[in-house]
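Morning run. Coffee first, then this:
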Amino acid sequence: MKRFKKVLALVLAGVLALAMLTACNGTTDPDKIMPEDGTPEVVLTVNNMAANKDLGQVEYSAKYSAVTKALLENWLEYTNNKINNTTYWENYRKITAELGSVKIVVGMTSDYRPGTSDYNPASKKSFKYDSLFKDESAFNLAEKIGVAYVTTSNGTVYQAVCLFDVN
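And here it is:
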């Protein structure tokens, strides 16, 4: 009987130790990890502005930030005369085709025209967050936010923000 109690105590101690290790799930969704390049401040600013307008909140996505960055790089190639308008739109369609049913509702949408003055994308110093709220009904469709920065050869840092409807 003593041996049984010792074995039982040992088993229970092992179970408690395992329970302690598994109780705290330290894993983080890699899609939610924000780079320390100003992205947390952008997400906070956008969500604070949305709250002040009684609009919904958006959640950061690394996956959609990569899409935003690809769109920004495509736009920079166009504005620096490295590609023509047709190539710009071909690249745009290739990048957004990978989204499947997910839609860009604010930012570099399919009706966005390079060279227009909606300030998205723009140099980091002149980015206007108000442009994200021009159409509040579109903003309210968004659940995810993508933030991208690209530094050009002359040192200018460009920023783009896109909001995605994932439902």
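The chain has five helices and five strands. Good start to the day.
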